[in-house]
Amino acid sequence: MSYYRYHVFFCTNQRTDGRECCQDNNAQAMRDYAKARCKELGLSGKGGVRINSAGCLDRCGEGPVIVIYPEETWYTYVDKEDIDEIISKHLKEGEIVTRLQI
Fold it and tell me: Is 94 helix (H, G, I), strand (E, B) or coil?
């Protein structure tokens, strides 16, 4: 059994060469929101959900992006409502949010 049910990585990379990056879309703030929200909902911790920052996941052109393991499910998002949907559908119910999947 895995230590966490879901391990969520938010790309929070900030490129300095002018190329598009996830941090251009407030990725760190969205990661912080997701982490706080999972804690509020009692989803965090052993056997639950772990929210982490990641360096460049090399999909910034499709971003901002997150990837959820163990399924290796990739998502993009626009706002907190999208993050809330990923939390409620994928992290709580185990359902893929196909409209946000990349």
Answer: coil
Which pLDDT does position 18 carry in this prediction?
81
- Pair 61, 24: CB distance under 8 Å: no
Tokens (6 digits) for 52? 């982490």
Q: Indicate the helix (H) or strand (E) that contains 4.
A: none
In sequence order, what DSSP letters do the residues of 51-79 get, joined into one string?
EEEES--S-GGG-SEEEEETTTEEEE-SS
Quickly state the pLDDT bin for 55 (edges 50, 70, 90).
confident
Neighbour tally for 5: CB within 10 Å:
16
Q: Do the strands 49-54 and 6-11 form a parallel or antiparallel pair, or are they unpaired?
A: parallel
What is the β-pairing status of strands 73-76 and 49-54?
unpaired
Give me the domains of the chain, ranges plus CATH numbers.
6-100 (3.40.30.10)
